[in-house]
Each structure stands twice: as C-alpha cells, then as structure tokens.
C-alpha cells in the first residue's frame, strides 16, 4: 500500500468535503492518506474547522515574523519520514518545505510534490524577492498538482515536464447550490422580490468580500451609470468587509441598491435567481463557481491580479471580461441585460462549465495524479 501524506497549514471548512472524497477514492486504489493540518494564527483567516477523522492528524503551527515576512514552522517533520509520497503547499513561508527538499537530496523517499498557484497573482514590486525564490523552487520537486490550466502552463514554462503536472481544476462543493436552485419556487422569488421592493427583471448581484481588491468603488460608479442606461436597474449586494460602508451609504441614498448583509451557503440562492448577472469588477476567485452553478453569468474586468480560477471564465462564452474602464464595463453589462440572446448564450455556457468544474471532478483528477506520481517513482 502506498503511504501518502498531505501537509496543510490550515484546514478551512471548504476543503473538508474535498479531503473526505479524496480519502474515499484513494482507499479504493490502495493508497493510505494521512492529512497533517494545523491551526491559523489567532485573528487571521481562513480558520481551521474542528473536525475529527481517522486519516487526519492535527499538528502545532508556530508563527513568527522576520522583518516584513511571516514564517511558519509546522511541527510534523517526523511524521513524514515513513511516507512514500508527500504533497506540500507551494508557499515560501512554510519552513518545513525547505527541510523536506533538503532531505530529498540525501534520501530517495519521500518523494515531494507541490500543490499551488505557481505564482502569487496579487504580488507587488515589494514581493519580487519572494516571487524569485518561488520561481527557483518550482522545478526542484518531483511532481506538481496545479490549480488550473494556467498554473500548469506557467510551471511547465519554468522547467517542469508536462508529464509531471496534474491539473486539478481547483473547485469547491457547489452541488448543494445546484440542487437548491431547483427547489426554489416562483412564489418564493415573488415574495423576495416584494420584500426587496424590486419590480424589475433588470437585476445585478454582487456576492463577496467588500475590500479594496474587490473594487467596490468601481462597482458603485458602474451601478450609477447603469441606472442611467437602464432606468429600472437594481443591484443586490451580499457580503461584508472593510468597505461595506460604501455599500451601506449607497443603499441609504438610492432605493434601487439593496444591501442584504453577509449570506452563506444555500442562503445566497434566491438572490442569484432574481438576478441576470453577477457583477464583480475586482478580484475573481472561486466565486466564479457560484456563478456557474446558479446560471448567473459573471462580468469582470481584465485586471492583472485575479486568482487562478479566472481561467475558468471564457469571455463571451460563460461570462464576460471587459476592458478595465467603467465605461466599457457598463457598456458590456447593459448590452447583455438588454439582450435575451446574449444572456441565454452565457447561461448555456455556465451550464456547461458547472459540469466540468465540480468537486467530484477535482477529486478524480487529484486521485489520478497521485497514482501517476506514485507509478513514476515507486
């Protein structure tokens, strides 16, 4: 039986279903999974959840600062020695990574794989040193589990052979959203529409964090211009964060802006079903999967700091990426909202995308990659 260890600094709630499914799949293939996970630094996110599984071992994390950098020591090196394969997060601050790579130069096992983005898509000039280190280490491991096709192409360009790269199509469990959407009745939507005082079908939605990277000011400016182009336009906003005051102020000023606070899980479903488009001019990440699952095409801009999952959005097919100007963003949104043909084309694209970017497919891809990883070295 192959012994596999995966090390995670934290275990957030959205990763639990993935590891549950991965363990079940690996058991069928004769692979014994051990997940070593720690806790977050107090006051930070994402937070680890309190769960207990036979294949999960909690380990201590020690956090400390060196200049402007935070480093983390995960107390689990001794737990990896007997493993055949170890998968580590691609992150410079994780000191155990350097220890495992150093040991690999004098021992044939464990073989080491990276799981990650390839590069920091939100990096600034101040991060050049850190990003250079990351790039140097990319080809120093035995296998790569790449978040997306874009990640795979990037690490391949830095010397990792294509046959040693597994594209996992990073995803979360959206099946509950898909099932839940089918259970919402027209009467429920009518009640919600009356509650929000929306008497129009020209509705957009924003669902996500409210901080600078999400470009809330850009969104509010675009919404005001959309209202002049589409007199019965309404905007629903879900979420919270440091810039929620901008949203609260706009909702007090304009009755066609509806701020409903943070919502989670299936609670977001009826709001999406009331809406034609998801408006997110700033950073796009896994939230694009909500758009696919609920058939509400997402419109964003071509900013350079999206997360890797932006690669799932094919502009003009299952969503839209406009130029990085409010005027072009408004033009593209209005064009779709006023054309059932364009909107339905994008909805059809969302329907196709939601079949590909699923947790089940991610688990299958990951498990297949683990078997290929093992077959290459064991």
Provide the descriptors you would attach to this structure in a database record.
six-stranded parallel sheet, elongated, 19% strand, seven-stranded parallel sheet, 13 helices, Rossmann fold, 378 residues, alpha/beta
What is the topology?
Layout: E1 2-8, H1 16-28, E2 31-37, E3 56-58, E4 61-66, E5 69-74, E6 85-89, H2 95-104, E7 111-116, H3 128-137, E8 143-146, H4 149-157, E9 165-167, H5 175-181, H6 186-196, E10 203-207, H7 216-229, E11 234-238, H8 244-253, E12 257-259, H9 269-273, E13 277-279, H10 287-293, E14 298-301, E15 319-322, H11 326-337, H12 340-356, H13 359-377
Parallel strand pairs: 1-2, 1-6, 2-3, 6-7, 7-8, 8-9, 10-11, 10-13, 11-12, 13-14, 14-15
Antiparallel strand pairs: 4-5
Helix pairs in contact: 1-13, 7-11, 10-12
Distance between the termini: 11 Å
User: What is the CATH architecture annotation of the largest domain?
Assistant: 3-Layer(aba) Sandwich
Indicate the low-confidence ranges by residue numbers. none
Specify the structural class.
alpha/beta
**Morphology call:** elongated
Characterize the largest beta sheet: strand count, sense, and whether it forms a barrel.
7 strands, parallel
Mean pLDDT: 96
For the largest sheet, list the strands in their spatial order. Answer: 3-2-1-6-7-8-9
Q: Bin the helical content.
A: 25-40%
The CATH topology annotation of the largest domain reads as: Rossmann fold
H and E string: EHEEEEEHEHEHEHHEHEHEHEHEEHHH
Give the number of DSSP strands: 15
> What radius of gyration results from the CA coordinates?
22 Å
CATH class of the largest domain: Alpha Beta
β content, as a range?
15-25%
The CATH homologous superfamily of the largest domain is termed Glycogen Phosphorylase B
Number of domains: 2
Count of helices?
Answer: 13
